Model the fold of this input.
Amino acid sequence: MKGFCLFLLDCLFPRACVSCGTLTGGSLVCARCAGRIRSVSEAGRLPGPAATPVISPFLTGGVLLDIIRFLKFEGGTAAAGWLGRRMSSAIEPHAGRLEAPVLVPVPLHWTRLARRGYDQARLLASEVSRKTGIPLNVRALARSRMTKPQSSLDRDSRRGNINGAFRLRSARSIEGRDIILVDDLVTTGQTALACCGALETAGPSSIAVLCAGRKGAAKIKVECSDCRMFE
Done:
């Protein structure tokens, strides 16, 4: 019992850097590893004609991926607060220009939720909502079928794996709203595109994606000056 309690405390309040293992006295990452996370100020876009904006505080990389791994696969829910605070700072300058923003997390399939015990995207969205005051809607979107982990697939396989995996649950609750879709990472953008496709059927005013990290590939690092959120 004592061992389990110590494990639980380590998950909630890690005493060592989740990337290098250096003792930190409670911080999620040590100062050295925190300095290695690549920040980003400009927004990106998802591939495709809609060019949906992607907002994130960081680009993907070794240390950030260690934090995401800790959050998703090691019970490290403390990471949601650390990441969520930085995601909040990234979205606030843009959300202030919107009339009716709402946060919609990318949902887990219920079987994966049962195994993991929590939905990491919902934890991140909850933290962003708490920090910014933007309302959270967890009923708008549902995962309609189980899929393979996207991280285990190549680009072409990811598109087929996630196609049709999401469905709209509550169109009325997001109709005419400015949707901010929340996820942990955006790499190829296929998961976000599948979610946006389902959300668009509700007739939202606009859609943007908020994530902890995005891939810094040139194909999504473009200006968003013609997007309503960035006017």
About this structure: The chain has one domain: 38-230.
